[in-house]
Amino acid sequence: MSEQDPLVIFTPSGKRGRVAPGTKVLDAARALGVDLDSVCGMRGICSKCQVAPGVGEFSKHGVTVSPDALSPINAVEERYDRVRGLKPGRRLGCQAQVLSDVVIDVPPESQVHKQVVRKRAEVRDIVLSPTVSLSYVEVAEPDMHHPSSDAERLLDALKAQTGHDDLDFDRALLPSLQKTLRAGKWLVTAAIHDDGAPVVVALWPGFYEGKLHGLAVDLGSTTIAGHLVQLDTGEVLASSGLMNPQIRFGEDLMSRVSYAMLNEGGATEMTAVVREGIGRLVDELIEEAGIERGSLLDATFVMNPVMHHLFLGLDPYELGQAPFALAVGSAQSCKANDLGLDIAPGTRAYVLPLIAGHVGADAAAVALSEAPHRSDDLALVVDVGTNAEIMLGDKTGVLACSSPTGPAFEGAQISAGQRAAPGAIERVQIDPTTKEPRFRVIGVDLWSDETGFETAVAATGITGICGSGIIEAVAEMRMAGIVDPTGLIGSADQTGTPRCILDGRTHSYVLWENGDRQITVTNGDIRAIQMAKAALYAGARLLMDKRGVDSVNRVVLAGAFGAHISPKHAMVLGMIPDCPLEKVTSAGNAAGTGARIALLNREARREIEGLVRKIEKIETAVEPRFQEHFVAATAMPNAADPFPLLRGVVTLPEVDFNTGGDGAGGGRRRRRRG
Amino acid sequence: MSEQDPLVIFTPSGKRGRVAPGTKVLDAARALGVDLDSVCGMRGICSKCQVAPGVGEFSKHGVTVSPDALSPINAVEERYDRVRGLKPGRRLGCQAQVLSDVVIDVPPESQVHKQVVRKRAEVRDIVLSPTVSLSYVEVAEPDMHHPSSDAERLLDALKAQTGHDDLDFDRALLPSLQKTLRAGKWLVTAAIHDDGAPVVVALWPGFYEGKLHGLAVDLGSTTIAGHLVQLDTGEVLASSGLMNPQIRFGEDLMSRVSYAMLNEGGATEMTAVVREGIGRLVDELIEEAGIERGSLLDATFVMNPVMHHLFLGLDPYELGQAPFALAVGSAQSCKANDLGLDIAPGTRAYVLPLIAGHVGADAAAVALSEAPHRSDDLALVVDVGTNAEIMLGDKTGVLACSSPTGPAFEGAQISAGQRAAPGAIERVQIDPTTKEPRFRVIGVDLWSDETGFETAVAATGITGICGSGIIEAVAEMRMAGIVDPTGLIGSADQTGTPRCILDGRTHSYVLWENGDRQITVTNGDIRAIQMAKAALYAGARLLMDKRGVDSVNRVVLAGAFGAHISPKHAMVLGMIPDCPLEKVTSAGNAAGTGARIALLNREARREIEGLVRKIEKIETAVEPRFQEHFVAATAMPNAADPFPLLRGVVTLPEVDFNTGGDGAGGGRRRRRRG
User: Fold this and answer.
1) Strand-strand pairing, B554-558 and B379-383
2) Where would I find the 2Fe-2S ferredoxin-type domain in this sequence (chains A, B) (predicted)?
3) Model's pTM, two decimal places?
4) Residues of A with CB under 8 A from a CB of B
5) What is the nearest CA distance from B327 to chain A, expressed in angstroms?
6) Domain residue spans in chain A?
7) Band of residue A674 on the pLDDT scale cut at 50, 70, 90
8) Which CATH architecture has domain B7-110?
9) I need a labelling partner for A336 at 20 to 30 A (CA). Which of A417, B52, B100, B295 fits?
10) Strand A554-558 and strand A379-383: pairing?
11) Can B7-110 and B213-351 be said to share one CATH topology?
12) Minimal Cα–Cα distance from A413 to chain B, Å?
């Protein structure tokens, strides 16, 4: 282009260049690598390419734009404006021609690769780059003199418009192909899935006015959560969850593995029920969002290794025993049909890769969401559940392991434990002087010592303690000197409160009582929490050893449960390594977020596939130091690590309730603290 | 390699080169590009690489081979010989090392790309290069310190041994993967299908001793014929056929298309029954051949366009009307499961490409078998059936069309017509002087005027005339002056034989009578044959026009029916263009042969895919000259083309039985002969 040719400047990208006079804005954008959408092959129908040209002095860009810098509104644009309406000042990029220097703004809705801004400052935004896109084309009519099939002519038209020379056609669409082409009078809209090998996955007669949708599923052992997402905005249109119907074969994963081992066809049966369950979830989501089923064309799935194998129709037998060999662990890119899901004939599915025999695609999704591999500082990311998946890393490398925390954090194995549901004690405070507790219950906004609590709680009653409640209770007991660092609850005499009652050979702390009903924290409860948190900490500590560090810069707690844990209380227990409390953040359902990222951004799939290969996997079961870390971590916060930052903000009374007779061994551990 | 290194000469290829002393024979073969098989990864188990080294003076090759040119028989070879036996003089190429100059013969059974010699001189042999091959590998055991899935380690082992870097694993094998690996103690045999994208399609624990098999199916409108083939030899182990169960929806294709149009779900119903039928055929073939079902890993299919669409689950509606648009016509490479066939979990299927809306994959298969595109002289290839598929071409190009001959050649529309079955008249001779006929009947070796015929025919009776019989009868009547060139049968007076009897307004010729039972050739029969043969000839003539020729060098008659047609009689009728009679040959079931070639040689698939694109397709329905050729071709042999070569060997009396009253129009046509 010569200096005489008009200069085009696109905002917000700032990309600029000269084009021949008469060049269409869309062509100019493509030539300059500007992200401007288009579906209809420059026919002025889709309006995806609409732009907002500026007029006047643009000193920042050093140009003055005349009112006739673009060609006058033409008949196609007039018709579009009349029939569908165009915002004031907007032009169709496929119609407007550049005549002289011009500044053209590409509004967000005209960009293919829009950014979805996430609320949390520490994580990156999601760039929209979904696997499915639309293309509206005119297909050549059949000609007896040059016989070729309808599929061939459709592909020719799509290849010419999209540039996908290797485009293929999903066999499942063939039965409806000829009717669709004729219903559209040889004008059709194709949905093209492109995740390596582009393929036509849906077809509508004429111009398809609707949106494309995708599904992100977090397939947990207990619950299956699904989000239905609009692919061009990233917006979640509907979210729903259901209990994993496999629960009837066993509450936890190992009992399901046993079921498969002990019952001929048991694995097949569990595969069938979980697929049925997801099918129901899909139906619900489609109905709730009010979308056309045929527009739901992509789905991503994350889950732990056992659920992965059961979902894929594989017997999880080998995952029940060392060496925990996966049948397959790489990312699965296939049709939803291949996974027993009947969504639309062409719907695609992507199952994120597993990291190792104990570290699943859910952990991979957490990595995608929390991106430890992109972190400047050293981050510890913990997904707390029945198994804790733990990752430690930064830009220079990431380590991962899994640690068998057991279900104590979810309220199981706790005498008054229950799932997080209305009536459950979820927060606890204990006065260090009076040793008197106050608490909050799920479903009630007041603390138990506030006026009106009794009335407010009447609807649900006080039914038990959930996971976050027991963590706060034990941590508060530790800070109030009711339980000693080894985990022994003192007697009423030792602690000075009648709430400590003798309960068999040990003591319990009465959190609440009403008539003959009582909710207590028993010494058994403390032991269960100690085991769980020691496993979690030992896993983290093992990764720190491997990495050669004694501390981490920040801690991210992922998982629905992680969202409810108080960082201070978790650290008092010694669940997580010592670090500044404000550096402990919650990532919420990071696995679900990761599934959404993989749905919305196909490059993220390659990223996680690459990361999974590079992550250094540590198998806690065969690491000799794990046991040592575990033993030290049974103490609260820890018998080996000093937790100086924690001790700077909380007081941890160094009480000792071991009278030498009950063999709790606290004395020995305390000595090692030195 | 230096001149000091030993020289290795392989026979029969004659490939030669120097290798470092100690090089294994198999490695030497690979380095020199010699076709030497190997399955077991040089473990001395499969014996596929066995060779026969020579000793002594080889003046032809200019070397003298010492008895110790190869390393002594080693322990692996000794064990193989002891356990399984090795032919005298044979060595295992993966064990024997080259020490000095040597001549090594590769026996046919050790070659991957063996040639299957075909009986007919005019066609090429089939080179074996099947899509499926075996590979025996040792897979690394799982290691908790380096977690990776069983699938990944299996693929790693196979990639290393086969060099297929892009090898994939069929999802359908995943459920049995872990058990198979452990049953084989980490030694397994994999079957790899490679037709562009290599994929593991079957897996056996340990070394698989069996053979691999394939299926070639010719899916006709009337019958479905299948051949079960051993892939490493090309040998047909079992052949079977069944009536196409779709016949209950309509005898001919157009009535099936109508059924689909008139009945909701009719196409789906027809798809289901034909797939079921093929399923039964597969079961029969497996049982007859006595092979393991899991070894049947590839299948090829040929058929006409309507059967193609119905088999693929597509409504043939558009094929019932101009412009005869195919939904899809390109070769289909997929899983047998995708076509509703449950053979083995990994079995592949390949459907040959269609040529045009009327010219099917069966014609493509005929092209593969008869190879007009490789012919030095100009060949006309005709596949005779309800539709005739016609190809004309040589190395410089091929044209193709289809012509609607109707079912007359199959005995339908003929008054005494019947399918070719015992009791049917199949050959006819008429004495030109006495006008007396003699004939032969299917199931009897004697002619009707030979002693013992009456007794021999008693078992079946004389039940009617089959397709080849009616062609001979009409041609003999023409040569005996009983029917004139326009197709009019003369009266007893005109012909001088009382066998010509009045039959309504026209005459019939009594071929046989016994008491009150009679088999006659009516003038209506002659008309039906004239219409059918005129369509066939007009199609051929149209291709000759397009090619700009008046004659062809040779004619190939394909199809089961083509195998029974007498070239002379066909030419007397003017079914096929004039050419030396010895240049008219029968190709038998060339479509079935083409399906077998595509099964046995994967390069043939690329060849036919390329040829189908290059073939010039002629649509007879829209060619103005077709009608003109058709009218001229209703005369016998032809009202426009002189057939000089034919007239040089047979006498065709120029009788004329048109008395001006019956409007047969023969007079006008005769004048054009002028």
Assistant:
1) parallel
2) 6-110
3) 0.90
4) 141-152, 169, 171, 174-175, 177-179, 312-315, 317-318, 322-330, 332, 334, 338, 354-357, 617, 619, 621-622
5) 5
6) 7-110, 131-205, 213-351, 408-527
7) very low
8) Roll (3.10)
9) B295
10) parallel
11) no
12) 29
